[in-house]
Specification:
This protein has 619 residues and is of the alpha/beta class. It contains 21 helices and 26 strands. The chain folds into three domains: 270 residues, Alpha-Beta Barrel (TIM Barrel), CATH 3.20.20.150; 135 residues, 2,3-Dihydroxybiphenyl 1,2-Dioxygenase, domain 1 (Roll); 184 residues, 2,3-Dihydroxybiphenyl 1,2-Dioxygenase, domain 1, CATH 3.10.180.10. Helix 3 packs across helix 4, helix 4 runs parallel beside helix 5 and helix 11 packs parallel to helix 16. The chain is elongated and about 90 Å long.
């Protein structure tokens, strides 16, 4: 797949955009006219820059309000076109995007439109330029690629073709099967953009909410699959308008774009029996989470784990690293004065620095990561120590891959059991989910990272209220729920998410949720061991009594233990929270009774309760 991206998709000056696009590995670039107009150099300077970076100018765009113009406006339009041809020849651009007319003056006369494009074809051919006609979803008379194709077919000129844009097609709900009627030789360029499903006018939707493939809700793979089936093997280019992306570093967005196209090509080829890279890694479960902590905070964290019912069961044979266990849950506390964990602690303080996932094929996971341009991590190990496969996550933490079925041997080889270890005293059985918080403009990058690498599905994005702003939350899960994660971000400056980012100095795991089979017994046991739970206002329980037909005894037990409750058509969700450790992270305890969600209805209450401790000493 020859990949391209429009300069409008990334932030910065034209030079900064081109540098980021080339570094991400794109073959070509669409020069957006506004980016060129703001450039201080000449067209020849841009052409030289492209050559030095190894980039091809796939298109110059857009040319607006061309076809169907009446009288004197038509002559002026062709004059404008000739001047654009002059500029394109200096740039070395061989293709021009002409988008369907939105001018109130435009005529709907089909014969006039066809005649305009025939004359345009003649003029473009004399310059060695190809024109691509794109149907804007809000075009005055042409807003469907089927109509654009009918015009191009009737024009029947070698220098006039069609440009397809997935956003415009999906926004107008044009069936993807309609692509089968298009001659692939007449497709000048295919522009790709995903987007969340929103109910709003197409222009605003397009200008503010486009995303990279797989970050939205459109069936992009089906769209490109149809193009593959008709034999199109030309250039696929990203054209993304998104306010978040405009506020993000160009290098990160360009890399996301390239990664999305690598994933898209893999998905399409896989449908046809090819395997460009190993499949998405199937996660069998979370084997461990690792906390980095210094000599002061590590004992404090250990005491908190003890109150949660964990027992320290082993210590690393050569490093100051301890293993805590309860049920199927493994937590590693690393206070080594060297290496990655130490560096992570120096920046973030005590925090989750790594997540260990059990997968079926570790070499395949690493190979797929490399293909997706995800950095593989390694550091020196002591003689006899195992070197776990790891990659760098978006926020700077690590993701370890552990071969499923080998974990007990790994623990035995790395950790020395404590002879007098006390048995775990709690009621926790397994990891339930992890919640990660990131900057608002990073959220789609995190989402793409996980869905491109792991065999997970994304749930519908939701919003909930923090007392000081809105929070967006995106859940991703494996089909068997062996891995559940939520990605949370807020544009507001004083939400709990934003305060976490400041206290943590970056993005990362904000809380870890553990499953129990008896939430009441777990809460009672933890309180007896001295843990401080997050208090929930009495008004919440009065409202529960009104909304749900719950036994009074259960309501009183929930009120006493600060347990929250949710119910859907399938089951029930009971959960409570511990106070935060050093205002950085906290733990949630959940009991699922055939319930598959995350208790989103309770988030405003939880956040309001945590907001009370904004200036209070942390637990």
């Amino acid at each position: 797949m020859r990949t391209s991206i429009a300069t409008v998709s990334v932030s910065g000056s034209l030079d900064e955009k081109l540098d980021a696009i080339a570094q991400a590995g794109f073959w070509g670039v669409e020069i957006f006219e506004a980016d060129f107009l703001a450039y201080r150099g000449s067209p020849q300077d841009v052409a030289a820059r492209l050559r030095s970076l190894g980039l091809t100018c796939t298109c110059f765009q857009p040319f607006r309000d061309f076809e169907g113009m009446p009288g004197p406006l038509r002559a002026r339009t062709f004059d404008r076109m000739e001047r654009k041809f002059d500029l394109m020849q200096e740039l070395g651009a061989k293709a021009l995007l002409v988008c369907s007319n939105v001018s109130p003056a435009a005529l709907a006369d089909r014969a006039r439109i066809v005649a305009d494009f025939r004359e345009l074809g003649e003029r473009a051919a004399r310059r060695g330029i190809t024109v691509g006609y794109e149907a804007l979803a809000w075009g005055r008379h042409v807003n469907d690629h089927r109509d654009a194709w009918a015009i191009v077919r009737e024009v029947d000129h070698l220098a006039v073709g069609i440009i397809l844009d997935s956003f415009h097609s999906f926004a107008r709900r044009v069936p993807v099967e309609s692509i089968r009627d298009i001659d692939p030789a007449k497709i000048v360029l295919v522009q790709l953009a995903d987007a969340p499903q929103l109910h709003m006018d197409e222009l605003s939707w397009s200008r503010h909410f486009r995303t990279m493939p797989f970050q939205g809700d459109f069936p992009i793979t089906d769209y490109v699959g149809e193009l593959h089936d008709i034999g199109f093997r030309g250039v696929y280019s990203l054209e993304i308008f998104n306010d978040r992306f405009r506020a993000s570093p160009a290098a990160r967005i360009a890399l996301d774009g390239k990664r999305s196209l690598i994933l898209l090509e893999d998905e399409v080829e896989r449908r046809h029996g090819a395997t460009p890279m190993p499949p998405r890694s199937r996660v069998e479960g979370i084997e461990f989470i690792e906390f980095a902590a210094n000599d002061v905070e590590a004992p404090q964290l250990g005491r908190m784990l003890s109150t949660l019912g964990f027992a320290e069961v082993g210590r690393h044979k050569s490093k100051p690293v301890s293993r805590w266990k309860q049920g199927e849950i493994n937590i590693v506390v690393n206070r080594d004065g060297e290496g990655f964990a130490h560096a992570h602690d120096m920046v973030h303080g005590a925090s989750v620095c790594a997540i260990g996932l059990r997968v079926r094929d570790v070499p395949g996971a690493l190979k797929r990561a490399r293909a997706l341009q995800i950095p593989v991590f390694s550091q020196p190990t002591a003689p006899g120590d195992a070197e776990l496969a790891a990659i760098r996550g978006i926020g700077g933490s690590l993701l370890y891959f552990v071969e499923d079925g080998t974990t007990e041997a790994l623990w035995r080889s790395e950790f020395v059991p404590l002879e007098n270890a006390l048995p775990a005293a709690g009621c926790l059985g397994r990891f339930d989910h992890l919640a990660q918080v990131m900057q608002y403009d990073e959220m789609f990058s995190w989402l793409l990272f996980y869905v491109s690498l792991l065999d997970v599905e994304k749930k519908p994005m939701v919003e909930f209220a923090d007392p000081l702003g809105l929070v967006q939350s995106q859940a991703i899960e494996t089909g068997a729920r062996s891995l559940r994660m939520t990605l949370n971000a807020s544009a507001a400056n004083e939400t709990l998410s934003a305060r976490f980012l400041r206290a943590y100095t970056g993005a990362g795991v904000q809380y870890v949720a553990f499953q129990t089979d008896d939430v009441f017994r777990a809460a009672d046991a933890m309180r007896e061991r001295g843990i401080e739970l997050l208090g929930i206002p009495a008004n919440y329980y009065d409202d529960l009594s009104a909304r749900f037909d719950l036994p009074e005894e259960q309501l009183q037990r929930m009120r006493k233990a600060s347990i929250l409750y949710d119910r859907d058509e399938s089951g029930e969700y009971l959960h409570y929270y511990c106070r935060a450790f050093a205002k950085r992270f906290f733990f949630e305890i959940v009991e699922r009774r055939n319930y598959d969600g995350y208790g989103i209805a309770n988030e405003p209450v939880r956040l309001a309760s945590q907001a009370r401790f904004k200036t209070a000493p942390a637990a």
